[in-house]
């Protein structure tokens, strides 16, 4: 797509493109001014292109070329979801290289943060700056319990006819409930056409199995991770415990840590007004 004349500035308006890599056809969206190092967004469990919060994407795309994409078997990307985080990282590498980039910044959330760490373990030269939100290290305490928490909250959301992310990502106090409704509206109500394909149940279950393996796996040596890294989370993350953000901060030399009070897994979305400029400034350094 030619964005040289007038770049798309809003994620809601970003067109969907495709590229073939590693035997799969990946769907992706891009926005912001082209040129320079792009910021590639790595999305969370069971999420497609439509699940990114435009409040964060648009803030970063103001000055940077932003690319979001669906992993293999997710949304409209072809193939089957791989059963390990490392294979997902191989696909991410192939996707980035197929677009012609040798250096990128990465913004990741949750499962996306696991994939980003696995990518850097194999290809440290590819990533210049890294943002890890709502995530944790390989072998991190209780990551292997994500499936249990997820299924319980899906049941709760089904019984109350609400979006599962309202339970999984946000605290259930008044402020958390308000933030949850606003977030769901921003991510499901804004874009009305050219929507991505939904996540398939089998692919979702495979993602959960891969997360369990990651949680029980041999930790990466994060002392080798030399990229400037920004780590952010809420202080009550039930999916990927908040202590794991502190663990990442201790193990990644020179990293910066932001923990938002009275918020959960989606703390960066609840506190998007504070977080979006922090993330944009960090990535623009």
Automatic annotation (TrEMBL):
**By its UniProt entry, which SUPFAM superfamilies does this protein fall under?**
alpha/beta-Hydrolases
Q: Which UniProt keywords apply?
A: Hydrolase
The AB hydrolase-1 domain is annotated at: 39-271
Q: Which GO terms describe its molecular function?
A: hydrolase activity
Q: Which InterPro entries match?
A: AB_hydrolase (IPR050471), AB_hydrolase_1 (IPR000073), AB_hydrolase_fold (IPR029058)
Pfam families assigned? Abhydrolase_1 (PF00561)
Species for this entry: Glycomyces algeriensis
Query: What is this protein identified as?
Result: Alpha/beta hydrolase
